[in-house]
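Lab notes, practical 5.
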Amino acid sequence: MARFVVGTNGVSTSDRLIAYLDGRVATDDEVYVINSQKGGDATSGDDVRDGTEALARFEERLDCSVATHQFVRGNSPAEDLLAAAEEYDADELVIGIRKRNPTGKIIFGSTAQDLLLSTERPVVAVPLTHGQ
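Output from the prediction step:
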């Protein structure tokens, strides 16, 4: 049995991460999906609804144990993912990354960079656009 902690920020991200996990997880694996919102005035009702829909995708489409969590407490996504990885003793963290401009290709996004620099657990970065 393997434990995965997955970070999503929207339905399209969920769909790409599910495509990766679908060929990776077994029925006895556990997937913990995190949607981390900024909180306060920076998070709208639409943000919460979008996060809820993004989380529901995993429960609908993966054939394994799935637990979803939406955090609206002011932490960065990396902080919430690292805390979940610790709590659930994750074997792997799974996040999505977007294509960056030529200079940005050298550096991951802030969440990816924070995760890579703050954990010894494997981090899988799934491209969020086709052909990458």
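Observations recorded by the TA: The chain has one domain: 3-127. Strands lie at 3-7, 30-37, 65-72, 92-97, 123-127.
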